[in-house]
Design brief:
UDP N-Acetylglucosamine Acyltransferase, domain 1; globular; 1 helix; 36% strand; seven-stranded parallel β-sheet; 21 strands; eight-stranded mixed β-sheet
Amino acid sequence: MIQTILNYLYRFFLLNNRKNIKLFGKVQVKNKPCIDIKDDALLELGKNVTLNSKNEKYHLNMFTSVKLYADRKGSKIKIGDNTRIHGSCLHAYEYIEIGKNCLIAANCQIFDGSGHDVYLKNASLRIKTIGKSKPIIIGDNCWIGTNCIILPGTILGNNCVIGAGSVVRGKFGNNLLISGNPAESIKSIEV
């Protein structure tokens, strides 16, 4: 009973009545997520989205809560209807879109920017750089296994499954099993 009340309060205070967070239906919040959407950024959550930061009754160990972070001017995170995110981080420098009916398992890192420039004439200046970004788009009905890293510029078609622990960069079509480091298409999936 107490946890239900807390989850309601998290949802109310973190998501409601904020001009930079748009809700298109009910959102289920389990334990407190970390939501940091700057005033000039945007978070859109579709109907029946689940943000699960609760280890109890989840089949894996979550290392931390769900984190949704859009920290640069004009950045946007868009999450489609019925998508479930478990103890993972989405960090948008520019744009991250997660389709409808997606499953994002625990401890995934999805970020569209590097944070710092890689190649400099003077590497000691790296700490003062902010890096570049490339949008990430994940299609409908995708399942991203635990501990995956989705790198800037990744585009996944509909119905893709990403094997646990994969490091994904690139463009992938529909209906694919993708796995590895670096991740590659393993086979087509019949749907």
